[in-house]
Design a protein that fits this description.
8 strands
Length: 161
């Protein structure tokens, strides 16, 4: 994917969300361990109480303000924090407007799409990002974790103007 050619597919407003999942701090040196976080969380997805829909989220925050570290959570949306079990943490996402990109290709090259967005599109877009969440990977109902294929969207929260 050429850095300069990636463009958003839409702008999307989304209300507040409560996510439940597994969370860990990473660096660029340890981010290769993110699939292990998903491997731990994936068997629990269908047991999460009060789950909304079948979409899974990979949420990134503090990637630009936390030195070499960033926070990452593999999660699903829930209606409330009550009854969250299996050592799941919750994360409240405020209502935001997002610029949405589509990742095409295998999951193994997702970082290339993210680099194209942050180093190609963003510097020339005039957009200002909100501080939290930094980015959400949105894995649609057709995403297959076994084959690591299906629709993946990358949502970047925009700062209010």
């Amino acid at each position: 994917m050429e850095t300069a050619t990636i463009q958003p597919i839409r702008t999307q407003s989304a209300g507040p969300k409560i996510l439940a999942g597994h969370h860990k701090r990473y660096t660029t040196d340890t981010m290769g361990e993110i699939p292990a976080l998903w491997a731990d969380f994936a068997p629990l997805i269908h047991t999460v109480p009060n789950m909304v829909g079948k979409t899974a989220y990979g949420v990134v925050w503090d990637a630009w303000s936390n030195g070499p570290h960033f926070e990452y959570m593999a999660a699903v949306e829930v209606t409330n924090k009550e009854g969250t079990v299996n050592g799941l943490e919750t994360l409240e996402i405020p209502a935001r407007t997002y610029v949405v990109f589509e990742h095409t290709g295998p999951l193994s090259i997702l970082c290339e799409t993210i680099d194209a967005i942050f180093h190609g599109w963003l510097p020339t877009s005039g957009a200002t990002l909100a501080g939290f969440p930094g980015m959400m990977e949105v894995y649609g109902e057709d995403f297959n974790p076994q084959t690591k294929s299906g629709r993946i969207e990358l949502w970047l929260a925009l700062a209010e103007s």
